[in-house]
Amino acid sequence: MDKTALFKEQLLxxxxxxxxxxxxxxAMLNGVPQKEVHIKLPLKTLxxxxxxxxxxxxxxTVTLQVIAENMCAAGIPVLLMDVKGDLSGIARAGSLNPxxxxxxxxxxxxxNSKGTPTEFLSLSKEPGTRLRATVSEFxxxxxxxxxxxxxxxxxxxxxxxxxxxxxxxxxLDLKDFKQLLQxxxxxxKEEIKKLYGNLSTTSTSTILRKxxxxxxxxxxxxxxxxxxxxxxxVKTDSTGCxxxxxxxxxxxxxxxxxxxTFMLSLLAEIYTxxxxxxxxDKPKLxxxxxxxxxxxxxASKALLDQIETIIKLIRSKGVGIFFITQNPYDIPDSVLAQxxxxxxHALRAFTEKDRKSIKKTAENxxxxxxxxTDELLTSLGIGQALVSALSEKGTPTPLAAVxxxxxxxxxxxxxxxxxxxxxxxSSLAAKYNQIIDRESAYEILNDKINKASxxxxxxxxxxxxxxxxxxxxxxxxxxxxxxVRQVGRTVVREVARxxxxxxxxxxxxxxxxx
Length: 514
Known about the structure:
Helices cover about 45% and strands about 15% of the residues. The chain has helices at about 5-15, 60-75, 100-105, 135-145, 150-165, 175-185, 190-195, 200-215, 255-275, 290-300, 300-315, 335, 350-360, 375, 415-425, 425-430, 440-505, and strands at about 20-30, 30-40, 50-55, 80, 120, 130, 245-250, 285-290, 320-325, 340-345, 385-390, 400-405. The radius of gyration is 38 Å and the shape is elongated.
């Protein structure tokens, strides 16, 4: 058997899924697409997570779009973290052009123009369905991790959550927690001390500063009601096509704390609310995190620990997580080891460090008699990638260099008008974009503080009034005694003057009686 025939046999046996699958392209040998050898990803193993990596401009985002839209076509809802703002085109059908026609002819896959049912979500004031969660839903442990508090400070947060629960004080937004913090260090200090012990003023001041730092990154827009229900991510349309939910994040790239807050909340909510599912025929939901290196470079230890835990456990909930980044080593080793699908676009060898990184990256892939992996990594063209996946049995597939198919949807972004039309027609936007500010800890404690302040003023006023009356009475007595003394002195003086005048000391020129 010649090399080409052996290549086809090995890859066909490795990627010829007997169950439902998505086709992403055709395998290449010596740089030539083999249109008989289609690379298929079994739906059954897509909850084993994945990675799409490669240098800037090699086609990672388009590959993400291809995989995501094909998942939706197979009935799998997806959640896309759109950091660069270039994934909105998935909502509209693509158009055939000579380059796409040539690509599909070379891989033996027909081109179908098709858009994907899409919802646009937002953490900021950008157009889209607003994502929110309450402080209470985070709980003291997660809230402390977000603020990066030490054990002592986290203990104070736990006490304040306990007090809020005991006194039925809803903690909905950040102003609720700030008001509770103020109350605990002022009017409620003795009450809380009696119930739970003394709270360090230094620690409470640090917590307040951390909250203000979080607010400065726009977190006040995220905390509050109405809380987003993750069940709204797991939907299909009337034809059975999965919903693509796109979170527009282009305006928060420089706000790592806000993104960390959202990620922790979302992953924790999905993990706790989704029931155990075991191995399904296809995932319930797949999450794509674009530009993941921005997250891991800026992420707190709490976020890294949380993602590692979620990656290990969330598979059994029927959820797959896919990271899109420039270099595989942007992802922590503990997370990288959990990823079943790896799609590696070209890497650039400009420096000695780059060349070492490429050799190290090549070692992550199965050894192949058909490719020199480290050399291939620098010679792949745009829209080509090395692929290693998991078969339906959970075993690694042979390494394949793949000429990828083009997206069925539009490559590029929606216009402002198209985006606004989509948001205006969204049932989710109508559900979540109404701001609710019901009575919560802020209002309740504010009333309590004002009432206590009013009572203190009334007591002070009564005390002042009483003192003023006592002072007046005293002054009147003193004044009365003074008046008597003054009148007495005046009478004596006048009498003395009269007597002295009669005695001949009355005035100049007057004669004496003697």
